[in-house]
Each structure stands twice: as C-alpha cells, then as structure tokens.
Amino acid sequence: xxxxxxxxxxxxxxxxxxxxxxxxxxxxxxxxxxxxxxxxxxxxxxxxxxxxxxxxxxxxxxxxxxxxxxxxxxxxxxxxxxxxxxxxxxxxxxxxxxxxxxxxxxxxxxxxxxxxxxxxxxxxxxxxxxxxxxxxxxxxxxxxxxxxxxxxxxxxxxxxxxxxxxxxxxxxxxxxxxxxxxxxxxxxxxxxxxxxxxxxxxxxxxxxxxxxxxxxxxxxxxxxxxxxxxxxxxxxxxxxxxxxxxxxxxxxxxxxxxxxxxxxxxxxxxxxxxxxxxxxxxxxxxxxxxxxxxxxxxxxxxxxxxxxxxxxxxxxxxxxxxxxxxxxxxxxxxxxxxxxxxxxxxxxxxxxxxxxxxxxxxxxxxxxxxxxxxxxxxxxxxxxxxxxxxxxxxxxxxxxxxxxxxxxxxxxxxxxxxxxxxxxxxxxxxxxxxxxxxxxxxxxxxxxxxxxxxxxxxxxxxxx
Length: 464
Ligand SMILES: NC(=O)c1ccc[n+]([C@@H]2O[C@H](COP(=O)([O-])OP(=O)(O)OC[C@H]3O[C@@H](n4cnc5c(N)ncnc54)[C@H](O)[C@@H]3O)[C@@H](O)[C@H]2O)c1
Fold this sequence. Notes:
binds nicotinamide-adenine-dinucleotide, 464 residues
C-alpha cells in the first residue's frame, strides 16, 4: 500500500517507519526542513539527534527503499495518486492555558492536504483515500476533518481515527509489538483499509486489534491518558504523601503490598516529583475543557491536575520548610533534563519547572546534565533573562561537584549508580533532593556520609 504521512515528529516518524517495515510504501511530509534532512540522512546519530527513539535510526536505514521524508509538496502531489491512506500526525497543543486544543497546525495541514487531494488522478479523484487522525484530538474532531475536506471539494474519501498509544523512548518497540491497535471507521470499506495497513496485527495472539467508530477511538485515547495520569497523581499525592508524613514507612514496602493486589496492579505506582511530558497534562486539560463546555462537573479531573502540580511545589518547598534552606546565591546541580528516561523530549519536563523555581529563588548557578536532552533544555531558556545562570555540563561528575543542592529530576537508570561519585564530589552538608527515589537503596549510606536527603515518598533523612 502507498501511505502518506503529514507530520514527522515522534508519532509520525515512528509509525511511518514501522509501516514501511510492514512492507508499505511510505512518504512522510513535514514543514520542518532540518528535521526532514536529519531523518533523510541515513545517519543513525543524526536521525536520533532529532528524535531520540531507540531503534528509529536503524529501522529507517533498513527500510530506506520504502520510506522517504520530504518538505517538498511537489513530491506529495506525485505520490498522492495511488495513496490509500493519509495519517495526520500534527501537534495538538493546548491553547493559552484554557484546556482547549489549539487546532491550528492540524487545520493548516488539512487544508494543504485537501488542495492536493483535489488534484489527484488528473482532477478526477478516482482513488478512494482514508484520512486518519493519529494526533490526539477532541472527541468530535473527525467531523471537522470531514467538513474541511468537503468545503474544499474533496471527494471519494473516508475519515478514520487511529489513536497512538506509544510510550516515548519505546515507540519503535511499542509499534512493532503493540499490545493493542485501535482503529475507528464509519464503514466496512475503511475498516478494510485499516486491516490492510495493520495486516500483521489482525488476528495476532499478542495484539488486541480493536475496531470501533472514530469518535470512540478519539475518546478512548483521551480517557486512557487521563486514567494513567490519575494513577500517577494519586500515587504522588496520597501514597507518597502518607510515606512522607508518617515516620517508619518505606515507600517500596508499601508499594510491594499494593501491587500484589491484582485489582490494583503495578503501573503508575511510582513516586516522582511531577508527571510531565507532552501528553498527560495536555490531554487531561483537553478532556476537562470538553466536559466543562458540556456543563459537566469536572472536579475530579481538576483535582488530578492540581495534585500533580502540588507534588512539584511541595517537593521544592521542603528545603526551606524542613532545613530552613535559603536558595539565594547557591549553586545547584540538576541531574536529568528529559521528562523521562530514554528520550530527549523536554516538553513539560520537571527540569524546566525546577529551573524556573531556581531562577525565581535567585540562585547563582545551575549545573545541568542530561545524557541526551541538554540542547532541547537550553533552547527552552534561550530568551530567558536568567539563562546565563545555566551551565550545561557533559557529565554527572560536573553536575555534582561543588554544588549546594543536587536535584535528581529524571529516572535515567545510570543515576542509580552515582553513590560513590556523589560521596567523592558533593561537598559534605549538601542537600540531595531525589525527585525519583532513584537512590532509595543508598539513602542511609548517603546520610552517614554527611548529606541531608529530601526524597519524594520519604520524610527528611538528616545527616547522621
Ligand atoms: N509524543 C507522544 O508520546 C505522543 C503519544 C501519543 C499521541 N501523541 C499525539 O500525537 C500528535 C503528534 O505528537 P508528536 O509528539 O509527534 O508531535 P511533534 O511535535 O513531535 O511532531 C509534529 C510534527 O508535525 C509537523 N508539522 C506541523 N505543521 C505541519 C504541517 N502543516 N504539515 C506537515 N507537518 C507539520 C511539525 O514540524 C512536527 O515535526 C499530538 O496530537 C500528540 O498529542 C503524542
């Protein structure tokens, strides 16, 4: 099959290359020339410097005969005649802190696509094409897609929804071996196109292939993210808080008891300073906005969003509250800038919010380290008046050496092994703020070595 993609970001690039690997011919169009050049470079490091996804570079190189990236619409026009499906993988950010989805990227792309579809097959539009929302969109977006196309005069098309459930950092593995594929269409003709695209998952014993209507597909994506987000926020704000406030409770022991109840299950029962990333907050706020617009009480969603923010605020406030620490003029090390391990994505990352807090407290200097996300983090602060306080360093040891406070913000597994480096290089009396409980197995040893430890899910652990 010939498949066109609009949008070569995390979702578009990963889905496209997995479809190429399934044997389809894929063209991926994106307006970002630098991204297109990197993805077209056939150089694994260049590809993954743009989109750090394990396996992405190798899979693009392996499938180079079947996948092409372009920013040239003339190529799209050439390709479109025989295309049977178009995946829309555009950004759908929040509009000005309202919760409403900003559909501008989507609408611009849809109009560009519509004009190209109009001209296909020598203006006869004989080839049926399925237009698929892969972006996370409001529940009824599919109807708008239909209208945009009809207003332009596009004919012989269907609209469908195929929400993306990828986990950043594991997107290739997740798309290659998904636990489920959800497709939404209005009729058998379009379901058949989906079955062709995903033929290797239809009837697979390891993948649930679920057919619903496009509205159900879009709604289930928003609801799935809300459920996951609420698990995390509940764990931070209730389970973690209980362990912080009552002496003698070990978070990991409590967790062990909870997760062995199959009804509770294990996912999301981790403590952390914040649930960031490009999706959870945005999607919960979008759901909040859509329900509010229907006059529905949204207290529960609101309290989940508030709990996540409260977690971050309460973690950062503890240095002052529990140790009477004054941040002004201090040097702080930040370990971890990506919103989670295995990605270079800093969208809604705790590190950005921690940095803004530190600017606000007038610290003197921030030594920031991440194995992959340093440049994206710096870009975020490029026009900030305090950006000169950031010293992006290229190793853990440089982030740790000589600082007054060390804040661990990302769960990179290698940080688990830092105890000896910390003991050698972090001045005695410094504070370790562990926002991921990544050093939990060493808290006693570190306290004995002369550090105060503030960790999510633990009461203050003072220098012994
Ligand atoms: N990143 C995730 O983990 C994830 C997971 C599931 C769903 N989603 C959803 O998928 C969608 C895309 O997310 P993403 O993370 O891939 O975003 P992204 O920002 O990484 O990628 C979007 C791409 O669209 C391109 N673009 C913008 N306007 C365009 C246009 N007019 N024509 C062609 N390309 C254009 C951008 O240049 C960018 O490369 C969003 O709705 C998001 O909520 C994301």
